[in-house]
Amino acid sequence: MRKNNRKNNELRELKITENFTTNAMSSILIEYGNTKVLCTASIENKVPLFLKGQNRGWLTAEYQMLPTATEKRTKRESQQGKQSGRTVEIQRLIGRSLRAALDFELLGEKTITIDCDVLQADGGTRTASITGGYLALEKAIEKLLETKELEKNPLKSKIAAVSVGKVNGEVLLDLDYSEDSIAEVDMNIIMNNKNEFIEIQGTGEGKTFVYKDLLDFIEISKNAFDLLFLL
């Protein structure tokens, strides 16, 4: 039995707090159970050099875990002189997932930075970052439209993400750390609200998985996306 008598196809308790901080263009605190991630959007009227003069915008993402996000304090990466491979991989995933939501020609020469800071980690930090990051992006775009800094909405679709996996032979949705740490298969699914996949990351952790397992993972994720796209 899962914690809180949660069904295999059920999300953890999901909570969204808007305007959690005041300095960013928009901010969202997203909570998947005990996982809590602060996602903020900032906008600059400039683009990277490789886009200069093309009248196109850009989106980039940064991700980090606070030292006390886990039970045992971890050292700040800034103190170690470089980001870990895990951090780099996750922020690249967040960035390319959210870029799939935007028409960069309609955005114009602006750069949007999505910062995802994990305040508390209990599994699913990257999927929470993508879902929360999209909500922060959406709110920032709304403000640009209200102030007439944008004439047309550059958002093409909503984006959300959820984790799935197999634990003790059972297919589970939205794994917490106690489940993820013993999962036989661990997968992250990112989709838009047009029923299109952006990315599927699946890994056999000591065991392999078969074609039917993949179909089961996709099927169980539908419950989550039906709810996440209503946020």
Task: Walk me through what this model shows.
The chain is of the alpha+beta class and 231 residues long. The protein has one domain (3-228): GHMP Kinase, N-terminal domain (Ribosomal Protein S5, domain 2, 2-Layer Sandwich), CATH 3.30.230. The chain has helices at 77-80, 85-99, 104-107, 125-146, 177-180, 211-228, and strands spanning 14-18, 26-32, 35-44, 58-65, 111-120, 159-167, 170-173, 185-192, 197-204. Strand 6 (159-167) and strand 7 form a beta hairpin. The longest helix is centred in the middle third of the chain and has 22 residues, at 125-146. One of its GO terms (molecular function) is 3'-5'-RNA exonuclease activity. It is an enzyme of class 2 (transferase).
Task: Point out poorly predicted stretches.
Answer: none
Query: Helical percent range?
Result: 25-40%
Which percent band covers the strand fraction? 25-35%
CATH topology: Ribosomal Protein S5, domain 2
Q: Class by helix and strand content?
A: alpha+beta
Computed CA radius of gyration, to the nearest angstrom: 18 Å
Number of strands: 9
Question: What would CATH call the architecture?
Answer: 2-Layer Sandwich
- Arithmetic mean pLDDT: 95
Whole-number tally of structural domains: 1
GO biological process, one term: rRNA 3'-end processing
EC number: 2.7.7.56
Catalytic activity: tRNA(n+1) + phosphate = tRNA(n) + a ribonucleoside 5'-diphosphate
Keywords: Nucleotidyltransferase, RNA-binding, rRNA processing, Transferase, tRNA processing, tRNA-binding
